[in-house]
Amino acid sequence: MERIENILNFKKNDEYLSTSGQPTEVEFNLIANEGFDVVINFRPEEEMLGVFDERRLVENLGLKYFQIPMTFDTLNNQILSKFFEVLEYNNGKKIFVHCHRNIRVSVLIILYRLIILGWEREVALKEFSEFIEVTPMWEDYIDEHIRQFSVQ
User: Tens of pLDDT along 112-123?
Assistant: First the structure.
């Protein structure tokens, strides 16, 4: 039996927010059946070549769909602002966010929690470290985007 927890690198972040790697067509049905209202996809179009028409599938399931294409090299204040805006606008709704493997999304969730929600750094990084080893490279990347965002 298919379960939402079996989606690639699935993580339930809280009551309203879950993240994962790329769901399959069948798994999007699970997402809809679990009561999610919104799907945010961070995969750029070139990564989606050969993948089913995700937007059409998600919208046909009755969910709102947002594609905010980014890679670690292209992340900037505009992308962060768009992501934060979509999360804030849909506050109180169940939101499912994915990328290819749930690495990009995990970093974006940390940035949201640190910049917007004011989480303590150690708490945000501890949750991230349950999924990925937090190395100085990751800390520098996160710090750089916090600095860049705070000067906008």
Answer: 999 999 999 999
| C-beta of residue 97 within 8 angstroms of C-beta of residue 19 | yes
Rounded Cα distance between 90 and 104, Å, is 20
Cα 134 from Cα 140, distance rounded (Å): 10
14-29, pLDDT tens digit by residue? 999 999 999 999 999 9
- Domain ranges (residues) in the chain: 4-150
Please state, in angstroms and rounded to a whole number, the distance separating the CA atoms of residues 20 and 29. Answer: 15
Residue found by looking up tokens 């150690």 in the block: 122
Pick the CATH number of 4-150 from 3.90.190.10, 3.30.1330.30, 3.10.450.50, 3.40.50.10420: 3.90.190.10
Q: What is the pLDDT of residue 152?
A: 61
Confidence of residue 127 (pLDDT cuts 50, 70, 90): confident
Q: Is 18 helix (H, G, I), strand (E, B) or coil?
A: strand
